[in-house]
């Protein structure tokens, strides 16, 4: 049997396969395939967690008109996109309308959100309220603006929800937001409360929902990066140094880094409250324990006598 010429090995499929596998193009293709798989897993996780939160707390009902509050940050973009995805296969019919509150901050890029929402075909409103001037006028120099800004923003959005007939107001708060609020209230407010996944406003007119309540901020950030949302930074408060919330955020991040899973455990605690093991007299009848004890003792005696 005659030997093959040396050039023949150049066309051997096994040689070509090895060469292709080692080529930059093949490496790039594998990297893209891996990135796509990871993105699909991430999107499914966010869909599942959001869907579970909606089911667990009865957030969305048949015929609801959900006003999605869109700030231009990663959380609200992600909330809108995940709700749109769930809407297509939801067992109930509901509509979505995006609402952005233009607070008249200097340099606010007014075209970004309309261009984005027009591009994806979402119904929307831009609500113009000059809360920026009010906040700057009323907030003393060196003080944080978050509290007043939040109240003014909430009041504007609540009122507008009534105007357009929205039955639910969706906010983009996630798991870490809820835990940060819990510790902020404990450390600085002397109360044990956070952000509930579903809330009736004080005047009883609006129901607020937080569909991302079960979602991790890291997952939302990764999803936002992958989707390349046109992020609009908040120039009013985002650059303020030593914000209490930022300090708490860093504390929680350090805990999670040292003890992975701690945030998950803490969030579970928020959903698993034992009033009798705390000290709120409004939530538990401590004064009536003797009566409960006497009743139980009487029942035990009755059972023994019956035997």
Description:
The chain has 307 residues and is α/β, with parallel strands linked by helices. It is 52% helix and 9% strand. The protein is built from 11 helices and 6 strands. A 6-stranded mixed beta sheet has the order 3-2-1-4-6-5, sandwiched between helices. Helix 2 crosses helix 8.
Summarize the model shown:
The chain is α/β, with parallel strands linked by helices and 307 residues long.
What descriptors fit this protein?
307 residues; 52% helix; globular
Strand-helix topology:
Elements: H1 13-21, H2 24-56, E1 65-69, H3 74-87, E2 95-102, H4 112-120, E3 124-128, H5 131-138, H6 146-164, E4 168-170, H7 175-189, E5 198-200, E6 207-209, H8 217-227, H9 244-258, H10 262-270, H11 289-306
Parallel strand pairs: 1-2, 1-4, 2-3, 4-6
Antiparallel strand pairs: 5-6
Mean pLDDT: 87
Order of helices and strands: HHEHEHEHHEHEEHHHH
Residue runs with pLDDT of under 50 for 5 or more positions: none
Regarding quaternary structure, how should these chains be classified? Answer: single chain
Reported for the largest beta sheet, the result is: 6 strands, mixed
Find the structural class using helix and strand composition: alpha/beta
Instruction: Calculate Rg over CA atoms.
Output: 27 Å
Helix content range: 40-55%
Q: So how many helices?
A: 11
Give the CA-CA distance, first to last residue: 101 Å
Our estimate of the beta-strand percent is: 5-15%
What's the count of strands?
A: 6
């Amino acid at each position: 049997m005659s030997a093959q010429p040396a050039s023949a090995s150049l066309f051997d499929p096994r040689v070509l396969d090895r060469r292709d596998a080692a080529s930059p193009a093949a490496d790039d293709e594998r990297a893209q395939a891996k990135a796509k798989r990871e993105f699909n897993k991430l999107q499914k996780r966010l869909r599942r967690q959001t869907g579970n939160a909606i089911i667990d707390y009865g957030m969305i009902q048949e015929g609801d008109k959900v006003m999605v509050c869109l700030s231009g940050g990663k959380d609200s973009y992600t909330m809108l996109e995940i709700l749109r995805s769930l809407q297509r296969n939801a067992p109930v019919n509901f509509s979505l309308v995006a609402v952005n509150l233009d607070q008249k901050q200097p340099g606010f890029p007014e075209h970004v959100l309309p261009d984005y929402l027009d591009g994806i075909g979402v119904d929307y409103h831009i609500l113009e309220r000059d809360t920026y001037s009010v906040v700057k006028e009323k907030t003393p120099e060196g003080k944080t603006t978050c509290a007043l800004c939040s109240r003014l923003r909430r009041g504007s959005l609540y009122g507008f929800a009534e105007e357009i007939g929205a039955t639910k107001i969706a906010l983009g708060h996630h798991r870490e937001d809820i835990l940060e609020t819990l510790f902020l209230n404990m450390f600085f407010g002397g109360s044990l409360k956070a952000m509930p996944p579903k809330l009736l406003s004080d005047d009883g007119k609006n129901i607020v929902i937080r569909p991302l309540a079960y979602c991790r901020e890291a997952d939302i950030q990764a999803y936002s990066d992958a989707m390349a949302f046109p992020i609009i930074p908040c120039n009013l408060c985002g650059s303020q140094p030593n914000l209490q919330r930022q300090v708490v955020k860093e504390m929680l991040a350090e805990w999670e880094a040292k003890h992975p899973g701690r945030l998950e455990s803490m969030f579970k605690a928020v959903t698993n409250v034992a009033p009798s093991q705390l000290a709120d007299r409004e939530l538990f009848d401590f004064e009536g324990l003797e009566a409960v004890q006497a009743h139980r003792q009487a029942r035990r005696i009755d059972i023994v006598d019956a035997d």
